[in-house]
Design brief:
Blueprint lengths: L1 H11 L5 H10 L1 H12 L21 E4 L2 E4 L2 E3 L5 H9 L5 H11 E2 L3 H10 L2 H6 L18 E9 L2 E8 L5 E6 L5 H15 L4 E3 L4 H4 L1 H10 L13
Parallel strand pairs: 3-4, 5-8
Antiparallel strand pairs: 1-2, 2-3, 5-6, 6-7
Helix pairs in contact: 1-5, 5-6
């Protein structure tokens, strides 16, 4: 699992030090509180912690990976490490929207969007190359950017997982369940995936009962997604 965090960090910058981030995590009281809250299910007094309140609505998406917290497949950056990650994200001076897209591939922290915008707006070099008179267009992903996806259910340790990946880029999303997920559980996650990454044309999966249920097939039909009858995620 540690390799997942290293690979995500490498997507931002090849010299982003994950070990240093872990050290900062264990020295940051807010992040430690989040770490224990994820393990404890956000129960008791921890749920009233000011920093933790920023995560309560997304608590089902959080999991522990070594010393760090993940939100789905994004590293939750410790507050004391945010400035360093911002520095790496900003190092190429690519403008606000490109920097946001780079960040959203791998990392998360409350206020990420505003922090990136503020950093770039106050950077002399960015203002020189990206003058305010030339507004950088907002680029939105369209349905056609993700044509084919694959999905599978598997078990690791005592938990069940749902993986959903873009076939072109290989970029995965991961959901964790305490017990074997039902068709309704899959529908909830797939609606989130479609909203986040766009609606694919084709979904490949095995023929597990959740994927064959009438409820799940109705979801695919409503969203205009085809599922080949003989599709199998492991062989696709």
């Amino acid at each position: 699992m540690g390799k997942i965090v290293s690979d995500l960090a490498h997507n931002i910058s090849g010299d982003l030090n994950v070990e240093n981030m872990c050290t900062l995590a264990w020295k940051d009281n807010d992040y430690l509180a989040l770490h224990w809250a994820v393990l404890g299910g956000f129960e008791g007094e921890l749920a009233q912690h000011t920093y933790l309140c920023l995560f309560t609505k997304m608590r089902e998406e959080l999991m522990i990976n070594g010393d760090l917290v993940l939100r789905n497949c994004w590293i939750v950056i410790p507050p004391t490490a945010v400035k360093g990650v911002l520095r790496h994200l900003h190092s190429l001076h690519q403008g606000t929207e490109k920097t946001k897209r780079l960040a959203r591939q791998t990392v998360f922290w409350p206020g990420l969007t505003n922090d990136i915008a503020t950093t770039i707006q106050t950077c002399t070099k960015c203002q020189y190359y990206w003058p305010s008179a030339i507004a950088e267009p907002l680029v939105q992903d369209t349905v056609s950017t993700i044509e084919k996806v694959t999905s599978d259910l598997f078990m690791f340790g005592s938990h069940h997982y749902l993986v959903y990946a873009d076939r072109y880029s290989g970029y995965p999303l991961l959901s964790r369940f305490s017990s074997s997920p039902s068709s309704s559980d899959l529908i909830k996650e797939f609606r989130f995936y479609f909203s986040l990454m766009g609606t694919p044309n084709i979904l490949r999966s095995d023929n597990g009962p959740q994927y064959r249920s009438s409820l799940f097939l109705d979801l695919l039909r409503d969203w205009g997604v085809q599922r080949p009858c003989r599709g199998h995620s492991e062989n696709y």
